Known about the structure:
This protein is α+β, with helices and mostly antiparallel strands. Helix content is 13%, strand content 24%.
Amino acid sequence: MELVLIGYFPKQATAKPDGLNAPVVREICSVSTCIAAAPDDWIDHWTHNDLWVYDTRDEAAAVVPSEAQSKFQIYAYRLLPVLFTDGEERPFEIPVVNPEPLPATYESLGFDIVSRSVGNSFECSPLSCCDMAQEMMANEFCLLPTLPMAIAAAVKFSTEQPEPGPYLVLEVLRDTVPSAD
């Protein structure tokens, strides 16, 4: 099954918190906003798509207050259209989204597994939110380095429920070219 680009989202650059027991992790690049924060009041703009990310990098950047621009980076997300629930894989129908093409300067940082128990938004990542990064062999970005590792983790999380709900697997990508701002 192929990963599908669903859009872009601004996240605050976040160093590994002291309480996270994962020596290899140096930065939190999770899809979850529990540790790597989204801009304050981003939701109030109501310019996101049906998966609560933005169709363009410019739309994502527009929700970051001008005085905070240097603290945020625009990430891209590709979603595996599979919902992991109770140890089983079910098709996940991706709502119609129309993201601008992924620039060639974006590179994959790894894969995150996030819960989605209520509504359309992505919730918690057990890798960072439940201190499972070390156990699951997360990389320096607190993400899993391969899609097969992420799928295995999603099956495990959907069975053990470190966070409630079914789970989705997303690839996290970031621009390698520094912003001109």
